Fold each of these.
Amino acid sequence: MATGRLLWLVLMGLLLTASLAGLAAGPPAHQSAADGKEADNPHLHGPQPKQIAPPAPQEIRSAIQRGVDFLLKRQNPNGSWGSPYTLRPVEVFAPVPGAHHAFRAGTTGLCVAALFEAGPGRADVASALDRAEAWMLRELPSLRRATPDAIYNNWGHAYSIQALVRLLSRPGLDEARKEKLRQLVRQQIEMLQRYEFLDGGWAYYDFAAHTQKPSGSTISFVTATVLVALHEAKKAGFDIPEPIVQRGTASILRQRKPDFSYLYGEYLKYAPMHPVNRPAGSLGRSQVCNLAMRLWGDSEVTDEVVRLWLDRLFARNLWLDMGRKRPIPHESHFAIAGYFFYYGHYYAARCIELLPPEQRTAYQSHLAHVLLRLQEKDGSWWDFPLYDYHQQYGTAFALMSLVRCLSAGAAEKP
């Protein structure tokens, strides 16, 4: 018994000596100054993705071509994309006709942006964009919320702005045509001002007082989506009212946790550890929220934060993947909904552009590695069955992500 106690004391002494020696030696030799800074903040630590074989550029280009071909085949005769047609007995809440006008507007905006980015120089793409432009000029001015509680139109306004900004940059447009597009951008910005929530920011439901200016809870990722679109409009020369930006960023900031995961919405502020608000539940949200805050000048979203959440996305990608194609929203682990998959990866692609060029390649390879294996036989991508909009919006998000895997580009600046 005495011998056993003696051996235990010797072992503890050796362990203590080794620990003290390690502390005296300081951080490992390979640790950079930035890493040392991160070591002071436990919230800036996260999992690292495994190494992968980078996909060949030709494989990415082939997938992009198939995706573009899919979108061209699925364009509606009137120039839009998507429809309320469904084979499912139960669908998500979507009051007719306004909700579907919003779904079609948002889906069309995404498809226009994707074709513009992924199909330059193709005559069939140019023709499709002409038809889509005519639809947008005709239909977007009447886009409003469907009912006092269903405000899906905010998605339509945001993605239409991004599409219209791209259409404006097409070569060969005469001044009269450009002015029509500019007027429509300004009108969509005005609609976002109208549907800004009382507390600042945006959402897609108002389950509170149903007031003219929506009164419900703002949603972090909806607000971020809008702010990214408004930033693109600002870069294109449009005036963006500073107060709505300030209120929107303040709304996101109220929902940000110390580790840069974000609450799903402000209504969950008293449940910060709800599964949907934890890092795994925030995988599809943190990318867009970090992007929006960085673009609008938040110095707290450093390159280290951007890398942290890109690393998390690729190291813990299975959490998002387990929700992919699940038919009921939020039924997967950490209350993840399927429709966050391609959405989250698209904004991850945008976050990669925030980094210095030499730091992008590994993340671009990981992103392409995830997306290429998921392309369907018909050339589409989809993550959540939503009437007849899901293949179109999923393909658009995937195309805009893969395009960014082929080019180092210039760092996106505020």
Amino acid sequence: MNRVPLKSIVAGLAASVVLTSSAMAGGFNRGSANLDGLFSDSLGVYSGVTYVAPGRSYSSVSGVRVVGGVAGAFAQGAVEFGDSFVVPYASFGGEIVDNAACVGSYAQPYGADSTYSGAITYHIAAQSLATQELGLTCSYRYDLGKGRLSFIGGVFNERIEYDQARNFTLAFGTVGDSKINVTSDAWGYRLGMAYEIPEIALKASLMYRSQTDHKATGMYTNTPFATLATAANAVAPGTYSGAELAAYGANTTATATTSASLPQSVELSVQSGIAPGWLAFGSVKWTDWSVLGRIDLVEGINGRQFSTSRFFFKDGWTVTGGVAHRFNDQLAASASVTWDRGVSSGWDTLTDQWTLAGGVAYDVNEKVQLRAGGAAIHFAGGRKSQTSSAVDYTATSPSEWGYALSASAAIRF
């Protein structure tokens, strides 16, 4: 069988795989913990950053909003809402005793950033989900004679911050802003196993990341509760009682609470040398996005559900395939294609995505590797067709392109 040196090829491979896995893949997926140190015989530092410019937009929006207590139809044209974002990662670790390795890692596994303009801001002006993961993962390796088998396990703490904003045109032309900020911490774990034959650059791994269950708390701010409740009564009489309106009074702030779960996932990754200087790789990942149905936010004055974000996602599937080639002792490159099945069930336009990525790696010396990559991301067109009430909106997203850039480095001691 062809023998392919592992060092340079995997460096080029990593540039492409890290990029494609973080470029808005499947639902709100962004990045994953870098665990390269588990497969190294020495300690090392691994870090990188990916910049993504999705350029996602609506080509048209139409619906109903309430202005001055009166419901009225609206329609608007193109609205770009997909904000650019940056995804960093860092990890440190490697073999600490014979056959045992540990890695401490920082990652941002999930995220969403969107800002809207025009009449749609009555329904949504901005929305953001930010996550940060700190993890510790270890492995124990068994020599099987022909290859080696590793068992992997670890824990992580996941912190989330969720922000939402809406703009309201109230009675007498007054503009009111509704802003929500909630945060939460939750613990999770990962389990996996891997089989390697380093001489031929063969590695197959199966990794599971657990679901995390969050109970988030925070604040509503700059929210005219009584005025908004009165407007709701104008559309649906009896929604709020007189006692509840009185309790709201002139309050413009209140505590906010909600519960939400972020998904479990399973990923199978395989790579192997296929010819002198060549390596093929691929992966399949399932993400349980159906666990994220809706986020109901409850205000702390009357204990009423005052805001709801509806997702009702389908499960996500991400499939990647590619090749890497070592040109010489220092330079390697990779190319890959990734398909993400859309998770939308009609409450948004998170449709199918195709990502074409390329990366290069340069070994400065035996201990330092530099990597860079780029990708083109194609989003299929889609339609937000579901509405929660008579006062809601529908929208259409066109077929369009975004892009991503990445840079990373690995230093071994």
Amino acid sequence: MATFFYTALDKANNFVKGKIEANNFKKAKEQLESGGFLIVNIKLEKKQRFENIKTFFSGVSRVDLIFFTRHLFTMLEAGIALDQAVNITAEQVTSRKFKEVLEDIYKRLQKGQPFHHCLAQHPRYFSKFYVSIIKVGEKSGKLHEVFSHLLEQQESDYELVTRARSAMVYPSVIVCALIVMVTFMMIFVIPKVTGILSEYKVQLPLATRILMGLSYFIIHWGWTLIPVIIALVFIIRKILRTPKGKWRWDTLVLKIPRLNKIIIEFNLARFARALCVLLKSGVPFDQAIELTADVSSNSHYTKALKSGIGFIQRGVNLTEVLAAYPKLFPPITSRMIGVGEKTGKLDHMLHKLATFYEKSVNTSVGNLASVIEPVLLLCIGFTVAFVAISVLTPIWKFSATVQ
């Protein structure tokens, strides 16, 4: 028996949806028509053999959240009710997991629960930042405006992250190509060449012996590298998820030349954009600082902002709080925020800061990529030269002996 989903008009001319079991499409249609239904649409249920596995591995990406925010903003602007907007969005998402999340939110909204409370039941997908802004929008009756601010923040953040990652695509391809090339030579080329050289009872150069040793190890023991690499990645990820491990990592990246500039600008862009959106949405200033701290990707920025909340609650200006961390917040940041506080246009000034640092990050990432490329080419040249010297040196010595 197969399951069919249908939409139809019943005897009272009411539009209904449902499902029916039948041996085939024709039998299902006959059963519905005999029951007095006028069929609008009928389709076979798709069998999901690995549905649970797919649901487990299907995540919710930044694109999914932007899609959700944009659709709700558009539909609320068009006057569609919030619960219906969520239901319509759930029907269109491609992520199975996110679809389940939205269906749960829809059911909770049908029961009369506040929207921010529904979102808060899924903290893995909706951050405190997101939920708090929605909460303010519901209380103020400006949910539509809040979605507009959220969409601006999400799209800017996504663009920032995407450009940073795309700049590393070319270096990553070069590194992968180098690894594949070296592995191929070690497995298929070097053994044949060194096999010929080993037949002659001559002392081989050190470079040749090293190359032969590497080739032997990769052929006979190379498979052991796969579980070792997987274990290392797992251990490192687990360490970085601990507060102490993340703090040490964040400290390290802030000390690496060129990279530290990108990290600082990236976090300043996020800080300015997030705080701007929160203030525009009407979130209280001290609460906005706390939420902005959670948005920061570097734990040094999180600690600096959270330690300043108490001072801000006592009336200290944000400018003075940030001035205590000159390495994290450059003078231009503190001064522009100071001007914004004095003129009462802090959100406007933060928007300008966010735009400035987003452009600066794009430039810095592009410059870093241009520096990495020649370094990678030098690495390729060194690898090729090492292999060539290791192979050709004993051949030259052997030729000199024959003469």
